[in-house]
Design goal:
This protein has about 325 residues and is an alpha/beta fold. The protein has twelve helices and nine strands. The protein has an eight-stranded parallel barrel with strand order 1-2-3-4-5-6-7-9, surrounded by eight helices. β5, α6 and β6 form a beta-alpha-beta unit. α1 packs parallel to α12. The N and C termini lie close together (about 10 Å). The relative contact order is 0.14.
């Protein structure tokens, strides 16, 4: 089994009965805790118009987390690039890299991170996204390059800085692009796992080496809920299940506390849809997490696993990341 790194994907989840201020403090606490556990990176995802997710001003939140930690890499998983001007993102991440040298990642995706009406409010043009997204990545690379010093438009801060770019995807489209550009590729297995294996195969088979990357680098985002016992883990995971039921119902309220029986919440069809979206989730005690991770890695052979642990109670959420760390370490020495 190929060894792999582990990292954190944080959506800055807003919990019922808690303020957004508490959400940000919990995110910082999680970053501090996982830094001590030697998680590789801590990424925040851009979403909009969602009462349950507070990471809309992603660059600002990255600065807050980076300022409150010491060594863990901090970045975006991701910036939804067509929502923004390439120059503005180059300046924002140039500023972050100048403040926290060597610690800033720029993960980019093409999805809106929201619904259609909000996408329009963000100024997106759906007709040009497929053309715009690859062009914007090339624009970012140009703004960050030293060779852009003679251009009429330059990024200050940003120019000449080594800011790694990662391409995110939830289908096969971005796999082709990441392979063509020779960039690291991260797949959203935490909500859209169906095409992940195909996307990884495309990326590996068509990868072209680049100045940033000489060989394919694959990351998978997954959900994981770990606890001292299997029963407790499955109980805590009902927060995750309820959140996905709410997604299906287009109900964006804050994340709920766990419950004893999901059959009181979801219909048969909703249950099928949720379990399909979450089919690559890891839930259990440490030994179960080890077995699930081993099975996953033997099949997908990723370089890095980015873990999103949706647990309502903050101390239990920290414990989940501790158990996941222990499970990965146990596999590494097995």
């Amino acid at each position: 089994m190929k060894k792999f790194d582990i990292s954190v994907l944080d959506l800055a989840p807003v919990k019922q009965g808690k303020s957004i201020h508490h959400t940000f403090q919990d995110s910082l606490s999680l970053a501090n805790f996982t830094e001590i556990l030697d998680y590789k990176r801590f990424w925040l995802a851009e979403h909009h118009n969602m009462e349950s997710i507070a990471s809309s001003a992603t660059s600002v939140l990255i600065g807050f987390i980076a300022n409150g930690t010491k060594k863990i890499k901090v970045g975006s998983g991701g910036i939804m690039l067509p929502n923004h001007s390439s120059l503005v993102i180059a300046e924002q991440f140039g500023t972050l890299e100048s403040l926290f040298p060597g610690r800033i990642d720029l993960g980019v995706g093409r999805a809106p991170g929201t619904d259609g009406i909000t996408a329009q409010a963000l100024g997106r043009n759906p007709a040009s996204i497929n053309e715009q997204f690859p062009r914007q990545i090339l624009e970012l690379q140009r703004y960050f390059s030293k060779e852009n010093c003679e251009a009429l438009v330059r990024a200050f801060p940003g120019e000449g800085l080594d800011i790694p770019i990662y391409i995110l995807g939830s289908s096969t489209d971005s796999a082709w692009l990441a392979a063509e550009l020779g960039l690291p590729y991260s797949f959203a297995g935490h909500f859209a796992p169906d095409q992940m294996e195909m996307a990884f195969n495309i990326y590996r088979q068509h990868f072209q080496p680049s100045a940033q990357l000489q060989k394919p680098y694959i990351m998978s985002c997954v959900n994981a809920v770990a606890a001292e016992t299997s029963d407790e883990a499955h109980y805590l995971a009902t927060t995750l299940f309820q959140a996905f039921v709410n997604i299906i119902r287009n109900d964006r309220k804050p994340f709920p506390a766990p419950i004893e029986d999901m059959d009181d919440i979801w219909s048969t069809s909703e249950k099928q849809m949720v379990l399909r979206m979450l089919k690559l989730s890891f839930i259990g005690d440490q030994s179960e997490i080890e077995e699930q991770l081993k099975s996953f890695q033997e099949k997908f052979q990723v370089d890095e696993l980015m873990v999103n642990s949706h647990v309502f109670d903050h101390e239990k959420r920290l414990q989940s990341y501790q158990i996941i760390r222990n499970a990965v370490d146990a596999l590494s020495i097995a």
